[in-house]
């Protein structure tokens, strides 16, 4: 079979199966009891979406391994039987875009539809929204592709004369070509006027991936920039704000009574909003009040959990308190590890991407040296850094959702996650996963050089007309670092405080 990397194919199949089984495990353990034995279509979409997101992240290390399988090839065509990574990249990201913009919205509209309506009416309502979205997206994509769907490559025309072979070879940094004295290759002596622009039409799949990457890059820059700081700092400050000792029974009764009052107020507000929904008055104020109730409810649940931690009950109260203490110690350890990874990420962006020429390959060299120690060690570390960015996106989205009105809160809770929250987070992960891959392909260009991913997300994407300037001037990287710095300042000033529910909750008139 020539140089066909059979081992890589077997590993890829095994990893895909393991990813699918792990996502099924997550779904079963995170789902809300109300969704048990129902909502099968949203559950299928959740498992499929999570699998596509995880596989897309793992494809970049696989792309690197696929490239390394050809390093001993004697001639250029010896590796034609390796994995077709370019086609796999385009297929996985077209599927990603279809899931994000069509399948997941349909599943959410259907799941959140009025339960009093029949199944047919709920499907019809969801299809109307999705078909409208599809028509708008198709028109926008078609117009943009027809007008500016071109790639502009900057090329340099070189020409060189011939010279007779010398009797001895003496290449060095000062003399890199055949000849002596001032003789140099044309690549070093060509004038700026020899540069020209080579324009060609991008393929439609590549253009779809490029536009999806731009949309994802905006969200990734905002959520990821905030999350890269708040993910470790949130764990560390959670340890700082931990309950220091068990409270008395009288204190517990007093706090529980106050939380009970707030719970009754929220229930009245939720009932009022449900009545408005049934009457059909779902305007901007209604949506604003719904998000406000969701925010207060989430904070109330956190207060109830904190109260239970401070006053453990039952026969194993002492064991429960000991596990609480160990849990906060684990958060501290994870927070410190995450802080090291976050600092490494930000430092790498500044050193390798923002400073021209780069001061050092930094993490690229770390991965290469880890590969020298053990073949897959660098690949595992590389995949970990990519996954860490996805976790940062989720952490940033949750933090901004608690503080900004226009972002819907969809927290993931063990054993208490509704399918609409699942679908929202899966859509966010899928949309940002494209940008995470592009970001990693750029940040680790030295480690991932000559891969299909770098060709798609590097040369083609960064040369697309109308889009290339965002990458030429490092707009996303600069915004990412700035938001990380602002989040660090925020935590330094307010991180030690814990957000409390309002004393008396009222709906906006």
Note the main attributes of this structure.
509 residues; mainly alpha; two-stranded antiparallel ribbon; 2 strands
Structural summary, described in words:
By secondary structure, the protein is mainly alpha-helical. The protein has helices at 6-30, 40-68, 85-111, 119-148, 186-189, 204-240, 249-279, 284-310, 317-354, 363-373, 377-403, 419-443, 452-460, 468-472, 475-494, and strands at 150-156, 195-201. The protein has a two-stranded antiparallel sheet with strand order 1-2. Helix 7 runs antiparallel to helix 8 and helix 9 runs antiparallel to helix 15 (475-494). It is globular and about 100 Å long. Mean pLDDT is 78; it is low at 73-78.
Shape: globular
Q: Count every helix, treating DSSP H or I runs of 4 or more residues as helices.
A: 15
What percent strand?
A: under 5%
Give the end-to-end Cα distance, rounded to a whole number of Å. Answer: 72 Å
Backbone CA Rg = 27 Å
Overall mean pLDDT: 78
Helix coverage percent of residues? 55-70%
Which residue ranges are poorly predicted, with pLDDT under 50 across at least 5 consecutive positions? 73-78
Task: Output the structural class.
Answer: mainly alpha
Physical arrangement of strands within the biggest beta sheet: 1-2
Topology pattern, helix = H, strand = E? HHHHEHEHHHHHHHHHH
How many extended strands? 2
Largest sheet: 2 strands, antiparallel
């Amino acid at each position: 079979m020539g140089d066909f990397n059979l081992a890589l194919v077997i590993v890829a199949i095994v990893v895909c199966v393991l990813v699918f089984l792990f996502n099924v495990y997550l779904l079963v353990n995170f789902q809300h009891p109300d969704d048990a034995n129902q909502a099968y279509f949203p559950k299928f979409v959740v498992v499929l979406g999570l699998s596509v997101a995880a596989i897309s992240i793992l494809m970049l290390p696989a792309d690197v391994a696929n490239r390394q399988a050809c390093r001993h090839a004697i001639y250029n065509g010896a590796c034609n039987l390796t994995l077709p990574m370019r086609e796999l990249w385009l297929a996985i990201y077209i599927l990603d875009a279809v899931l994000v913009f069509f399948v997941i919205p349909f599943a959410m509209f259907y799941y959140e539809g009025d339960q009093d309506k029949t199944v047919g009416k709920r499907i019809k309502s969801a299809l109307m929204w999705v078909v409208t979205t599809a028509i708008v997206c198709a028109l926008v994509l078609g117009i943009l592709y027809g007008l500016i769907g071109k790639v502009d490559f900057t090329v340099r025309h070189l020409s060189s004369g011939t010279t007779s072979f010398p009797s001895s070879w003496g290449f060095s940094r000062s003399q890199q070509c055949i000849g002596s004295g001032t003789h140099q290759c044309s690549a070093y002596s060509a004038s700026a006027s020899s540069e020209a622009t080579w324009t060609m039409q991008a393929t439609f799949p590549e253009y779809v991936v490029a536009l999806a990457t731009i949309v994802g890059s905006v969200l990734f820059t905002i959520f990821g920039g905030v999350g890269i700081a708040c993910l470790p700092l949130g764990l560390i400050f959670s340890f700082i704000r931990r309950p220091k000792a068990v409270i008395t029974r009288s204190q517990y009764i007093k706090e529980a009574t106050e939380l009970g009052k707030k719970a009754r107020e929220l229930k009245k507000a939720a009932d009022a909003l449900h009545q408005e929904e049934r009457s059909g008055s779902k305007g901007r104020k209604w949506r604003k009040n719904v998000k406000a109730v969701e925010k207060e409810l989430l904070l109330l649940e956190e207060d109830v959990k904190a109260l239970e931690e401070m006053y453990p009950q039952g026969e194993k109260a002492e064991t429960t308190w000991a596990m609480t203490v160990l849990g906060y110690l684990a958060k501290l350890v994870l927070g410190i590890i995450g802080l090291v990874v976050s600092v490494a990420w930000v430092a790498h962006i500044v050193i390798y991407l923002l400073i021209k020429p780069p001061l050092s390959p930094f993490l690229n060299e770390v991965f290469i040296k880890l590969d020298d120690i053990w073949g897959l060690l660098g690949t595992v570390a590389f995949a970990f850094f990519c996954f860490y960015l996805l976790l940062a996106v989720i952490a940033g989205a949750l933090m901004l959702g608690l503080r900004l009105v226009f972002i819907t809160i969809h927290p993931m809770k063990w054993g208490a996650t509704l399918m609409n929250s699942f679908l929202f987070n899966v859509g966010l992960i899928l949309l940002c996963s494209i940008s995470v891959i592009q970001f990693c392909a750029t940040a680790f260009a030295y480690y991932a050089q000559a891969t299909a991913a770098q060709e798609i997300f590097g040369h083609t994407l960064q040369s697309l007309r109308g889009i290339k300037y965002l990458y030429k001037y490092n707009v996303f990287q600069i915004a990412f670092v700035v938001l990380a710095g602002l989040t660090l300042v925020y935590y330094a000033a307010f991180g030690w405080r814990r957000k409390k529910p309002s004393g008396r909750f009222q709906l906006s008139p």
